[in-house]
Amino acid sequence: MANDKITRKNPAGVSEPVGNYTHITKIPRNAELYVTSGQIGVDQNGKLPESLETQITNTFHNIRAVLESEELSADNIIKVNIWATEKIDWDFMYGEWSALFGNNYPAMTVGYITELGWPEIKIEIEIWAAKV
Question: Which residue, 21, 19, 83, is CA-closest to 55?
Fold first, then answer.
């Protein structure tokens, strides 16, 4: 019988994740794949706040809106790529992360870079999702 749902796991023989993510996420055949552009911390009026924390909050709001536009939820997210230009306060970030994912973490990659598309952007998050 084919597995018709998205599965996440941390395989034996690999150390536990160092953060709130899963080592491997598997999507079944014939699932629809969705890839977002990197979401940034602009508010609904297109304004970009100065603080990283506010940009993070706005970015997660934007992620939810993009997902909802396709009738997707956090359960559909299979991979998250995060780029930041300054050190992330992970206690703050994981508050937003947990509000979106609960304990059902997708695969994740984080990179610190010197600049994003605009010099004022401090964080950008790209989402990969699948609908079975």
Answer: 83
